[in-house]
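Hi R.,

Here's the chain you asked about this morning:
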Amino acid sequence: MSVENLKNALPEYAKDLKLNLGSLARSTELNEQQLWGTFLAAAAATKSATVLKEISEEAADVLSAEAYNAALGAASIMGMNNVAYRAKGFLGDDYAQVRMGLRMNIIGNPGVEKSDFELWSLAVSTINGCHDCTAAHDNVVRKEGLSKEQVWEAVKIAATLQGVAQAIVASELLAGV
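And the predicted structure, written out as tokens:
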């Protein structure tokens, strides 16, 4: 089991992350597609090859090909959008009405339920630190019928995977010293 590989790779000082990772992988707040799509999208957003490899292997056993691609698509498109929307915010009111001018077709046709894709986009936006995108995706998923508990579960997955990635990268760097 790939989550097990990640748990085993964590150093003792990251025991809380190990416990969180185990409990989140057994979440009952999200259905299987939502859960593993969130794990996969968030893993891609961490930019850790180790985390992405381990999570992607397990996610591939659970997700359809369409859901797998949509989760990675959410990570990719949010990688672009989070930068662009944060920049608009940094630049101020003078840029508020500037047309984005970037292709985002996957958002309109992700290949999965809109609420699932938006939930994955929310998780990635959280990791990427985009306030506006996180809030916008929360608004969409809540209108689509997801509860605040489901949204928070996705945030917890994103937060935990980011912490796991940080601990693993630190361990890898220290081992190379």
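The CA atoms of residues 118 and 140 lie 7 Å apart.

Let me know if you need anything else.
M.
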